[in-house]
Amino acid sequence: MLNYIKAELYRNFNRTYFWAYTGGIAILTLIMNILIKISSVGQSMNLVVLIQASAQMLMVPVFLVVSIVEMVTAEEQKNLTFKNVLSFGLSRNKFVLSKIIAAVILSLISAIIILTVFFGSGTILLGVGEGFSASLVSDFMGRMLVSTILWIACISVGTFLALTIKNNTIFGLVYATVFLVGKKLIGLLSLLVSNKFEYVQKILITTQLDKLKMELTSSNMTFAALVGVAYIIVFTALTMMYIKNKEIK
């Protein structure tokens, strides 16, 4: 399994796709900071404001990780090349775990590069700001840590969808629909059908990410982390069950 994870990382590291995707987003954050610098709001912007603004954009990575899942899993599902991997003796459960772990590692590397460019260029162009403090960094890191668990949960959901849907376009549309419309649909059902749907709405990944934008409490962070872990376990198990029973020709 470890060798397969290494092979997946090597395969994607040596593709233009991963670096173009990561580099493209990183360049966009740099251009954004340059535009802020030369605009009228540039004088009031600094690293502190960027950190505070970033804490309100926790939903963005939900839609960024889908491309990583597509690189690692969806393409192989589309081309049906994963049968070659299984024919060499890798168990189906290890295959699923390897796909999720590889996607998580690639996502973390991509995020580190993008955030380094974003905050690094922001510091150079806009300055640090008077409100910069250890508590600000600690608050931001706390949000990021718990959010990361929820983002990994999104990768687990995405991997399940990628292995059950052959068409990449449909896979992307279903994934986007789940996270864009899911919360609103459940909210509508709670109003029109039964208020019991409110309990479902509370355990949605998007609901927990929205809560993490607000003032952090230990209870909110703990519950959000538990929700993320639950999604990871459930969708990893579902993916394993699907692949175990799938006929691979």
From TrEMBL:
Keywords: Membrane, Transmembrane, Transmembrane helix
One Pfam entry name: ABC2_membrane_4
Transmembrane segments: 16-36, 48-74, 95-120, 140-163, 170-193, 221-243
Keyword Transmembrane included in the entry's annotation: yes
Organism superkingdom: Bacteria
Protein name: ABC transporter permease
Organism: Clostridium simiarum
